[in-house]
C-alpha cells in the first residue's frame, strides 16, 4: 500500500529493492556503525535521568517527546533547617522554602540548590528566600517582606535542612542552574528525577542517587529501604502511581505546605501513548558528545567542523541543525522494547564490564 502511494505521489525510488529496517542486512549495518562508535570510546553505559514513558515502559529520546497542555500543582514547601545550618545563620529557627510542580518527587529529595552569585534573606516569618525574588514572594502572600538577616549562598553550602515528608537530611548545594525568574531561589533537588539535579549532585560527589519509581510509574519497595516516607504511611505508597500520590503527599506535608495552587503549562508527552512522561534515572546506553576521543576532539566539535563543509539550500538551514548539535545532551540510544536492533555486547562474568574487543565485535556484525 505504501509503495503504491509513494508512486502515485511521483516519488522516485528503487521500489523493487526497498531498504527495510526489518532486514538482517539493515540491522547488521546499524550494528557495525555502533561497533565503530564503541571502538572509539564514545559509547558509554551510565545511570542518568532520561525522558521515561511509564505508559510504554521505555526511555525516550528528545525527538520522541511531544508537548501538550497539562494541569499541575504549584506548591511552596518549608524545609526546617538542621542544627548545622542554624548555627551558621546564628538563629534558633528557620526554614528554607522550595517551589515545585512535582510533589511526587519530594520523597526522593536529596538536596536544595542555591545560586552561588545571589544574596539570600531570612524574613520575619523565619523563612529563607533569594533576595531578588522577595518582591514576588510578598505578592504571593508567603511573606510580608521584613528582612531579619541577609547572607551569601555560600554560608549554607554543605549544611542541611530536613525533608518534612521523611525526616531525611537535605544538603545545601550551589548550582548555576538556579534561576531568578520564578520560585524562591531555592531549588528542590532530586537527582533521580532531573538532569540539572543529577549534574549538581554529581559535582558534589553524591555516591547514591535515589529513584524510587518503577518502569510503570509506580513507587517501588525502595521507599521502605531508604525511609522515603514515614514508617506509618509508607505501605500505602508502595505500588501507587506517582501521579495519584500527589494529593496524599500534600496532606502529609501539613503545616510545611505553605501554599498550593494549580496551573496549566506545556509538558512533555510520549509520542506513542500520548501520556505525560517523567524524568527517571535508569541505566541506558549513550553516545557521548563531549568525550575528547577523536584525536583530542569531542564528537560535538567534530560534527560542527564537518557541518561547515555542507552546502545548505537555503543557507539558513545550517543554523537550525548547528544549534541542535551545539545544545544536545549525550544521545540516549537504548530503548526498553521488544523490537529494534539489539545492543549485542558481551560482559565479563567477573567484573560485569562490557567487552569492546574488535575481534568479537566484528564476528557478531
From TrEMBL:
GO cellular component term, pick one? cytosol
Q: Which terms under GO biological process does the entry name?
A: isoleucyl-tRNA aminoacylation
Which keywords has UniProt assigned to this entry? Aminoacyl-tRNA synthetase, ATP-binding, Ligase, Nucleotide-binding, Protein biosynthesis
Residues in coiled coil = none
Q: Which domain of life is it from?
A: Bacteria
Residue ranges of domain Aminoacyl-tRNA synthetase class Ia in the record:
2-363
Show the catalytic activity. tRNA(Ile) + L-isoleucine + ATP = L-isoleucyl-tRNA(Ile) + AMP + diphosphate
InterPro entries the UniProt entry points to:
aa-tRNA-synth_Ia, Ile-tRNA-ligase, Ile-tRNA_ligase, Rossmann-like_a/b/a_fold, Val/Leu/Ile-tRNA-synth_edit
| Entry's Gene Ontology molecular function annotations | aminoacyl-tRNA deacylase activity; ATP binding; isoleucine-tRNA ligase activity
Q: Provide the E.C. number(s) assigned to this enzyme.
A: 6.1.1.5
The record's section on PANTHER family has: ISOLEUCINE--TRNA LIGASE, MITOCHONDRIAL, SOLEUCYL-TRNA SYNTHETASE
Q: Which family does it belong to?
A: Belongs to the class-I aminoacyl-tRNA synthetase family. IleS type 1 subfamily.
Q: What does this protein do?
A: Catalyzes the attachment of isoleucine to tRNA(Ile). As IleRS can inadvertently accommodate and process structurally similar amino acids such as valine, to avoid such errors it has two additional distinct tRNA(Ile)-dependent editing activities. One activity is designated as 'pretransfer' editing and involves the hydrolysis of activated Val-AMP. The other activity is designated 'posttransfer' editing and involves deacylation of mischarged Val-tRNA(Ile).
Q: What is this protein called?
A: isoleucine--tRNA ligase
In its UniProt entry, the species of origin is given as Campylobacter concisus
